[in-house]
Design brief:
about 350 residues; alpha/beta; Rossmann fold; 6-stranded antiparallel sheet; 4-stranded parallel sheet; 6 helices; 16 strands; globular
Length: about 350
């Protein structure tokens, strides 16, 4: 769907028009038949696109950290390719309780992470927040093919409306494409990421914030900035994104009657892992894991059945107990088997 947001043909009386209808799209399939993206396939797709002349890599997918994928992104960046990724749609879980894990590849250094806003410029309810968010763009709300989604092309020569940060990211990629095109035409040597971040329309708290990043992407202001630079000979300020500094180093295992659940926790340095239960519309205090610990990798805890819980990681010595560095999805426990 996202290629249409960037490059739907204009003035043909069909569907709509893309933000940058004159650009060339290099479609690289990295998802399986069910729509899931493995990090190894993502890495191969990124490298293939770079080696075949891509200027921008749009990654409208998100998940956990992968060193293989990060190396591919670093390769792209070493070639001057702009990398853009969706910040993720897991701000809330299916029950409406806080989830919001750090999502990759948006959280990798140098990647422009994109959150979503509605037509009223409020954060889309699903759009994740954090230091991985550099910009926001139209991402809509509602459900698949509802009037509040983002209109674009769809498989089978059709059109639908869909909400998501995956729809917001292409607006930024399209803006990057227009910026690179204008920059080359004017003969300017500037970083297109600095242009796009620096020309965004500030939203929320003044300056960069974890909800909207540097603000709403603005194609017109980005191009106007380049025109001004060319006319005045001025210098463009270098923008310093707020990079995520955590990485996946630990996992938690909850032992239950019919198996267990695994989690990678993005955390660097000393941290505390525990669980919280949800009752009467609030989360309990953090219960540290005191069950069996196997080496440096797995935590195990026995639980009673029927509790609505989540796994939480916090910095050691952290004062704000409501500000975890990682939170799992919410799930219901089942009674642990005896050993």
């Amino acid at each position: 769907m996202w290629p249409g947001i960037i490059a739907m043909t204009a003035n043909n009386n069909l569907g709509g028009a893309g933000l940058a209808p004159g650009v060339a799209i290099m479609p690289v399939v990295v998802a399986d038949a069910g729509g899931s993206v493995r990090s190894a396939d993502s890495a191969k797709g990124i490298i293939w696109a770079v080696d075949h002349g891509a200027d921008i890599v749009n990654m409208s997918y998100s998940g956990s950290a992968s060193s293989v994928e990060q190396k591919a992104i670093q390769y792209a960046q070493s070639k001057g390719v702009v990398t853009v990724a969706a910040a993720g749609n897991a701000y809330l879980d299916s029950r409406g309780t806080l989830f919001n894990p750090v999502q990759y590849p948006a959280a990798f250094p140098g990647v422009v992470g994109v959150g979503a806003v509605t037509r009223t410029l409020r954060r889309s309810s699903f759009s994740e927040v954090g230091r991985q968010v550099d910009l926001v763009a139209p991402g809509g709300s509602g459900a698949f093919d509802s009037p509040r989604g983002i209109f674009s092309t769809y498989a089978g020569s059709g059109y639908v409306r869909m909400p998501g940060t995956s729809m917001a990211a292409p607006y930024v990629s399209g803006t990057m494409a227009l910026t690179i095109e204008r920059q080359r035409a004017l003969g300017l040597q500037v970083n297109p990421v600095d242009v796009v971040l620096g020309s965004a329309t500030d939203l929320g708290a003044q300056g960069r914030d974890d909800q909207f990043g540097f603000g709403l992407v603005s194609p017109n202001r980005a191009l106007s900035t380049l025109n001004t630079l060319q006319a005045t000979g001025g210098a463009l300020p270098v923008i310093a994104p707020a990079e995520v500094t955590t990485r996946a180093v630990k996992r938690v295992r909850i032992t239950v009657r019919k198996g267990y659940l695994k989690y990678r926790i993005p955390a660097k340095g000393r941290f505390i892992v525990g669980w919280q239960s949800y009752s009467q519309r609030k989360w309990s205090e953090l219960n540290r894991f005191n069950g069996k610990r196997d080496g440096q990798t797995w935590y195990t805890v026995r639980s009673s059945g029927g509790m609505q819980v989540r796994i939480v990681a916090m910095r050691a010595g952290q004062k704000k107990k409501t500000d975890p560095i990682w939170v799992s999805r919410t799930f219901r426990t089942r009674a642990a088997s005896r050993r």
